Amino acid sequence: MLDLNLIREDAKAVTEKLKKRNYEVDFTELLLWDKERRELLVKVENMKAERNRTTEEISRLKKEGQNAEEKVSEMKRLGDEIKQLDEKEGALDEKIKDFIARLPNIPADDVIAGGKENNKMISTYKERPNFSFKIKDHVELATTLGLIDYERGVKMAGAGFWAYIGTGAILEWALLNYFVETHIKDGYEFILPPHILSYESGFTAGQFPKFIDDVFKVESEEDTVRFLLPTAETALINFHRNEILDEEDLPKKYFSYTPCYRKEAGSYRKEERGMIRGHQFNKVEMFQYTTPETSDAALEELIKKAEDLVRGLGLHFQTSKLAAEDCSASMAKTYDIEVWIPSMEIYKEVSSSSNAKDYQARRGNMKFRRKTDKKVEYIHTLNASGLATSRIIPAILEQYQQEDGSVIVPEVLRKWVGVDVLKPKK
RNA sequence: GGUGAGAUGACUGAGCGGUUUAAAGUGCUAGUCUCGAAAACUAGAGUAGGGGUAACUCUACCGCGGGUUCAAAUCCCGCUCUCACCGCCA
């Protein structure tokens, strides 16, 4: 959520900055509402002050046994008027808050304007693998190696679902073990959160109200909405909602493993077959709560951690800095790590590392107290996948495939997988 | 699922229509005293939003939302959560 003061002070500048992400907004109406609301506030607060004074007077008169009837009826009239103005002010306040809640975050100054086409590749690891034979895609490999059952996944749940079977499940679990082990070693606290969250949690993350149709709602009795989390970030951002933390307790570093549930409505494409885009996938998510002055450095740390995980697997990947429009609505700055999928000849995201700055903190009312002057300020929040498996498995299968249809297991995973090479079933 | 009790500031805890601008204690921060500390004493200290160049001042907040009243932490209704006991259950 953006700071209303920012818009009051220089609406034009905010409009300009949001244009970087191709977001058009006109604040004229909002500023009128705000002006009207503030005028109402002054008026109604003066009336309340008057009521408070008179109430004390009535109290005193009664105690002295004097007649207070006249004052009482006067206050009755004033009370009615206050109630009316209060309601008006409340309605305006609601309108203003809703308007602001729908605005995306302002891109950081160093973020390039425009859409996807302006994403900037900043580094790569390893060369693109060259194959001297005709390569298979990951769907074929996963099927012939007996790792994933796509057909039965669809039978059980419909399109966009699959099942890990046998060694495939073991490989998936090995990846998760590898991620978890690394994060624990790096001093991040492991949290297994609830998977079904409340509306409030979705609001803080920035999912709601705008993107409520992108999630699976599981319960909607009257006004309670619960939904399956689309990423563990949605849970972790709410861990400290409505809290004031101490500066010396920062940064808070967490990570979670959860499946992620996404509707992905209408986003299916032919080339995204297999497990490139599903309604449910496994992901380990890193998360940090930091002070404003340390959040940039924290973002660097998160990116490096995510890159190290992919490097550890020996996969060819690139890291890109996203242009403004490609950053999700809550984020001021985002870097993607994209792994090479040989059969598609494209890079696919396996990790997204972002700094939300104070955008989510405002939505969830999360602050910290300065050690020096005891003042409270909004905290900064950051998240990064570390990592999502649903594209790592295709990348491993395809990048490590051999001519005979077998696949070499990355060394770091062998202690869990138990074999060095995955061989086709006869 | 049932019954009962409860939710007050950093914490413990009083208040149950109008001397509450929320008692008292603990803890916290300054200061006095001290070589230093402890003790004692003095003062200060929440969050949010307005107004004012400023000193300052006003409003709201006693789990959340409504209601009654001239006036609500206090009375009424709904909700949420916590605790205890009972039932059911992996």
* Continuous helix count: 12
Mean pLDDT across all amino acids: 89
Please report which band the strand proportion falls in: under 5%, 5-15%, 15-25%, 25-35%, 35-45% or over 45%. 15-25%
* End-to-end C-alpha gap: 57 Å
Task: Let me know the number of strands.
Answer: 18
Uncertain runs with pLDDT below 50, 5 residues or more? none
What sort of overall outline do the alpha carbons produce when their principal axes are compared?
elongated
The major sheet is characterized as: 8 strands, mixed
Give the C-alpha Rg: 27 Å
Helix content: 40-55%
Q: Which H/E pattern describes the elements?
A: HHHEHEHEHEEHEEHEEEHEEEHEEEHEHE
In the sheet with the most strands, the strands line up as 1-11-12-13-16-10-9-4
| Structure classification | alpha+beta
Key terms:
single chain, alpha+beta, RNA-binding, 426 residues, eight-stranded mixed sheet
Task: Report on the architecture of this protein.
This protein is an alpha+beta fold. Helix content is 40%, strand content 21%. It contains twelve helices and 18 strands. The protein has helices at 4-19, 28-63, 69-101, 138-144, 150-157, 167-185, 199-205, 232-236, 295-313, 359-364, 389-399, 414-417; strands at 120-125, 148-149, 163-164, 189-190, 196-198, 217-219, 226-228, 244-246, 252-261, 280-290, 317-321, 333-341, 346-357, 367-369, 376-378, 380-388, 407-408, 421-422. The strands form five sheets. Strands 1-11-12-13-16-10-9-4 form an eight-stranded mixed beta sheet. Strands 5-7-6 form a three-stranded antiparallel beta sheet. It has a three-stranded mixed beta sheet with strand order 8-14-15, with no helix packed on it. The protein is elongated. The relative contact order is 0.14.
